[in-house]
Design brief:
By secondary structure, this protein is α/β, with parallel strands linked by helices. Among the domains are: 188-362 and 558-582, Dimethylsulfoxide Reductase, domain 2; 602-726, Barwin-like endoglucanases.
Length: 731
Amino acid sequence: MKRREFIKISGLSLGAFALFDPSFGLIGEIPSEKNKRFPTYCEVCFWKCAGWTYLNEKGEPWKIIGNNDDPNCNGRLCPRGTGGVGMYYDKDRLKTPLIRINERGKQTFREASWDEAFEYIANKMKNISAKYGPECMALFTHGSGGAYLGHLLKAFGSTNIAAPSFSQCRGPREVAFAVTFGDIVQSPERTDIRDTKCLVLIGSHIGENMHNGQVQEMSDAIDKKATIITVDPRFSTAASKSKFWLPIKPSTDLALLLAWIHEIIYNEWYDKKYVEKYTFGFEQLKEHVKSYTPEWAYGITTIKPQIIVETAKEMANASPSVIIHPGRHVTWYGDDTQRIRAIAILNALLGSWGRRGGLYNPDKVHIPKYPSPPYPEPKKTWRDAFPGKYILAEEVLASGICDATIPSSERDCTFKGWIVNGTNLIYTIPDQKKTLNAIENLELLVVIDTMPMEITGYADVVLPECTYLERYDDIRNSPHREPNIALRMPAAKPMYNSKPAWWIAKGIAEKLGLGNFFTYKTIEEKLDWELTQIGSSLKEMKQIGVKKIKRESDDLYFLENQEIEFNTNSGKIELFSTALENEGFDPMPKYTEHEEPPEGYYRLIYGRAPMHTFSRTANNPNLTDLMDENSVWINPKVAKNWELKNNQYIWLQNQDRVVSTFSIKVRITERIRWDSVYMVHGFGHSDKRLTTAYGKGASDSELITKVLIDPIMGGTGMRGNFVTFLTENPN
């Protein structure tokens, strides 16, 4: 019997759980001395800003404010961060462990104790290990709990631990920068925006994707009269703050980048001393871009030659305090590593890597890990499913795990069990049909989450994780200009029968006979041991929340004429990539054309909103007050042709005749090109247990059925999909 998306929860009495009052009516008041505060760092997005959770007079979480000592936020939180309290009070939270059962041909869940759920999971994992090997278990994670669950999986004998943020988001930029500079961009990004004189955003809409520290630094840079150049088919918030807005034709970004490289080289606007001292392959690059002129790019990008020249000159004038931003979500068209390679090359030509106002050298604290036995050596990994492919991908591909779960005579590796923590794979991995096919072939699917996201409807076991306001997690150790650590501690006891990930991982490990990998009795014991190793303590961190530690060496930027050996084959910045050449790929980026929309269709562009993170916040009562549904941006000329009106609800149909389950509101605006439409990602939830988010807006994820695979690192390009409009309900 197939797993079903919607399931009845058998015997679950919601009245058995005490609901907290969601009004917590003190919002807007200044915390008094009677209010207690607890250090935390945010789990609503990956930036992980440190803050303080305050309790109200009843002892309930009330308000979160930023920690002034935190370099990630400088004491100021974005709407997501301040709205995080809504996760705690969300009435739709998962409340107790659930196990799937079959009842007279129907699939339902029943309540279970934690001990029973752990026993069920452990028995299934043991069976999978005995039949196929422990390596046939995989973990998908996008949250702090992944550290403990990853430790569990490696103790079990599998290293197949995937963060969708790599293959679905940032992977091409990490590989592109690694083969160019011998180092990755990291997170938070190493961009020195506060001191830059020119910031180029090419498909990176800072301000809507609320990367807190970057938004603050961009504001400071604007105050200092820095030039902002935004390349985007949409007039984004960042574009509104820019000296130049280049409304590029979608899918042609690489042509513009190559034309910029041409102008900077042939006008001799590059940093000659830097290029001569630190780079490899300049002459090959010069010959390679000879024909990539602004006039050539104009016919492809629709950006006029004089604008291409003028913006290239702006970058050169600011050199080396210039940043061509590497972006975050960069899996677009399948040639994404090469597109980001062009961005890396531009930064290198302008001398920005390792320079003030460019891309600095981040540092982080080395925190020894709590003692545990060595992991068993796995006999195979996810790479066995893709022999000879994606060699340069340094992280596990989430989409690769998904593909390798579907039985195939061509693969030596087929996964039989998944643990999914904090990521709604139905919305995260493109081509939902393939994801569901993979799930049907699993012998075990465990989902650990705070909310009944769509993925929980397909699980064999659902484990309710408590929110980040109710738990300890690992010490936050983010790279930055100044090494720093931050503590998250619970401000309240876990609501209902939910538990933290460290406790869940430890409980499963003990059922598997792997308790010696989790010898600490409490998480406080583990954290205090680790903090003691670096000269701090849990007691100290509870008081201060964030601790800054002095850099071991003064190497934030390169010194004048400093001798540098880069971690590349040549020991230099590789404009001509020997690593790519060795793997049979173009050593320098070439422009390739991409498919055009069919007649009557428009390229689907998706993005973020400052009050939401992916699909995980669409049910948060605090954040839905700010935005409860998305809309589709349509150019006025297109709207006129289709006789569409503002605020009219329509359905979207893609090139494969997949139709959005729910309707979406029309927004007619000049801020989008005529050949494209735009919508915010993360809406259109189809699980009725998400009572606030259900049916609000449309899901871009279900319309992304064509996936353009990056041959270099396996990233899933998602912007090759096109949509048309249906004005009558097709469902």
